[in-house]
Design a protein that fits this description.
alpha/beta
Length: about 400
């Protein structure tokens, strides 16, 4: 039976969409990498790429020869045409807004941060984010007529892809913010927890990109996290996956806004650590000062930080037993203390996470720091309607 032309066209369209999905997710890739990731034959893939180049949808990039030490000339790469579309990523944190404007080819056009009042409501926070976007667009002369989507990261129990902590839709505050931004720019807004988005950024381009299973912790004014499971960002049945800060470590401890008691976040967030230093007679000005004193070896501060890291490590050890990740990445303000906090985490995991089981687990500092949430928001927007696992990116 001869296949009808319309059926053949549908197959061709599906193959083209699969190729474009990989380029959206991973950025520039060689033809060999695209063959591996899409499963297309060499002839089919080359034919589709030729057509997309002729239409201006994708472009070829010459290899960067500086620093190349391998044999032969590096392969050219294919990427989405940077002028064909724009993506905005927003991390609307508790005290800071971070915005990144990028191309479909994964080039960053502009980035910026701005303080926002802790007491600001959803409308005020949305307007502050819009003002920052508009200022960056004007300052860097960016044309947003090609804007395709916006990724939005928010703190707390925010469900991704239409789900919420209640399982019936986005939280009220998240919906108010995303609706205001969507109405302003007229494109789809992908909303998720900002720590979970930071995990996505690390898994896509950062510290955990070389493993399929990873745990990310954001240790900052809040304590959040995210899980990469078999290459996918886990959101959970109710949008609460990765909320490591709300694991109870003192069941009879102080009440937490989440409704629990003695949550990890209450004990190890920077404000709590600064109070613990004060009880030891050490005045610490702010989280940056806390980290600086720890790195300088101030004994009371180091003791406070190590104890907090030990608590974190104990919670992580249970997650390590369950997930068996290849890496644990710790980001956020407190992570800047380096081995002062990483070593106790490593020690706790080594002692508690089935110590006789041979495992290779690296505990590392996250690569993207304070920009992780906004970069993850860009990654989420790039993956809009693409339910594929994170691709295996080429190594440098």
């Amino acid at each position: 039976m001869i296949e009808r032309p319309d059926a053949m066209q549908r197959v061709r369209l599906a193959h083209t969409e699969a190729l474009l999905a990989q380029l959206r997710s991973a950025g520039p890739l060689s033809r060999a990498e695209l063959i591996r990731l899409t499963g297309l034959s060499r002839t089919t893939l080359f034919d589709i790429i030729g057509d997309l180049i002729a239409r201006g949808v994708v472009v070829e990039r010459e290899p960067a020869l500086s620093g190349h030490r391998g044999r032969g000339r590096p392969s050219t790469t294919v990427s989405l045409n940077p002028s064909a579309g724009r993506i905005v990523g927003i991390d609307l944190g508790r005290a800071t807004i971070t915005v990144i404007v990028a191309t479909l080819g994964h080039d960053i056009l502009a980035r910026g941060s701005r303080a926002v009042a802790l007491t600001a409501g959803p409308a005020r926070r949305a307007n502050a984010a819009i003002k920052l976007i508009d200022d960056l667009v004007q300052e860097h002369d960016i044309d947003l007529r090609a804007l395709e989507a916006i990724g939005l990261g928010l703190p707390g129990l925010v469900a991704g892809r239409g789900r919420s902590a209640g399982g019936s839709g986005p939280s009220v505050a998240a919906k108010q913010v995303s609706t205001r931004i969507r109405d302003r720019y007229g494109v789809a807004v992908v909303t998720d927890n900002n720590s979970r988005l930071a995990a996505l950024a690390e898994g896509t381009w950062g510290a955990t990109r070389d493993v399929r299973d990873a745990i990310y912790v954001r240790w900052s004014d809040g304590v959040g996290g995210g899980l990469i499971v078999d290459g996918r960002l886990a959101r959970g049945a109710n949008g609460a996956a990765g909320e490591i800060g709300h694991v109870s470590v003192e069941p009879d401890g102080e009440p937490c806004p989440c409704g629990g008691r003695g949550c990890l976040e209450l004990l190890i967030r920077p404000s709590a650590l600064i109070e613990q230093c004060a009880r030891r007679g050490v005045t610490v000005a702010d989280p940056a000062d806390l980290v600086a004193r720890a790195r300088a070896g101030d004994p009371p501060v180091v003791d406070v930080m190590r104890h907090a890291a030990l608590l974190l490590g104990r919670v992580l050890s249970g997650m390590v037993v369950q997930l068996d990740p290849g890496k644990v990445a710790i980001g956020g303000t407190v992570a800047h203390a380096g081995d002062v906090v990483l070593d106790p985490v490593r020690a706790a995991i080594g002692q508690l996470a089935i110590p006789r089981h041979p495992r290779r687990l690296d505990v590392v500092t996250a690569q993207f720091g304070d920009e992780g949430g906004a970069l993850g928001a860009v990654a989420a927007a790039l993956r809009l309607n693409v339910p594929e696992p994170l691709p295996a990116l080429p190594t440098a």
